[in-house]
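Attaching the record inline, Q. Sequence:
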Amino acid sequence: MGASVNERIPEIGTLRAFGIAKKYLKLNFMLEGLIVGSIGSIIGVVLGLGLAVIINQSGYTMPPPPGRSESYQLLLLPTLEAMLIILFSASLLGVVASYLPIRKTLKKKILEQLNHV
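Structure, as predicted:
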């Protein structure tokens, strides 16, 4: 998100020169961060569930723990609670990752943003 903001600094300066309020620019980038974070977390959860199914079906065994002599099958048991935590935290991280660079960029004067190379 920082790279996205840095690449669009002249665009931000142009929008500010046209009179767009800073809060709407912040909201725009934070919404973009939320969307990117949500899509990424959904893809991650789906890939994680698929990998858990593949590992559970493969029949891998774990070595015996201390005090035992028998190995046991490796089973990954994803929970709904863990998936929801991942979805929420990755989405929140996307918002925070977009807020910090846009806040720094909006502190610059409009002329500095327009001259950014």
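The longest helix spans residues 22-58. The chain is about 70% helix and 5% strand.

More tomorrow.
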